[in-house]
Design goal:
6 strands; Ribosomal Protein L4, Chain: A; alpha/beta; six-stranded mixed sheet
């Protein structure tokens, strides 16, 4: 059974808590994590790159000189690929880089990433962060008490929390998102993962369904 340090919403240390077994069973499948990360990064690519072939380059409708008698090689257009400002051969064109991944492999990759951070001791649990308004200073102080200030931190909330999100979006290296939306990439990107306890409780209950 994996355990993680637990803190109050104010950053006060509490007794270590046992992580839900259905989600934190110690499994770390590197192959699943690798595929999940590669798929995520590939799907972020827009694929809007474009180069002009000779048919799209302006000009070059006439032969630069006559076919014979000049002593130079014959040329048909100044927009051929070997001419300066000519067309591009085998250049990139708009395409989709999207990759597919089985749902269970994606879930295994995410689960493995969370287990890896827990086994390293880089997963912390905090009580519900009830922010009545965006308070960046309060969030920075909390991270300082947790001992993770200055590191890449992924803060996972149980529900969508606009105030917590706005409090963290101006802090370098801090990413706030909902626990259910986190992927293996975000978990592995972060040096420390901070999770609200209600998010883990709901994840454990969902795993039993």
């Amino acid at each position: 059974m994996l355990e993680a340090p637990r803190f109050s919403a104010a950053g006060e240390p509490q007794a270590a808590t046992a992580l839900p077994e259905p989600l934190f069973d110690g499994t770390v499948n590197e192959a699943a994590m690798h595929r999940a990360v590669v798929t995520y990064l590939a799907n972020q690519r827009q694929g809007t790159h474009q180069t002009k072939t000779r048919r799209y380059v302006t000009g070059g409708n006439q032969k630069p000189w006559r076919q014979k008698g000049t002593g130079r090689a014959r040329q048909g257009t100044t927009r051929a690929p070997h001419w300066r400002h000519g067309g591009v051969v085998f250049g990139p064109h708009p395409r989709s880089y999207r990759l597919g991944i089985p749902k269970k492999v994606r879930q295994l990759g995410r689960k493995s990433a969370l287990n890896a951070r827990a086994r390293e001791g880089n997963l912390l649990v905090v009580e519900t962060l009830a922010f009545e308004k965006p308070q960046t200073k309060r969030l920075v102080e909390l991270l300082g008490k947790l001992g993770v200030r200055g590191r890449k931190v992924l803060l996972l909330t149980a529900e969508t929390s606009p105030h917590v999100h706005r409090s963290g979006r101006n802090v370098p290296g801090v990413h706030v998102m909902r626990f259910a939306d986190a992927t293996a990439y975000e978990v592995l990107w972060a040096e420390t993962v901070v999770i609200e306890w209600p998010a883990l409780t709901g994840a454990g209950e969902a795993a039993h369904v």
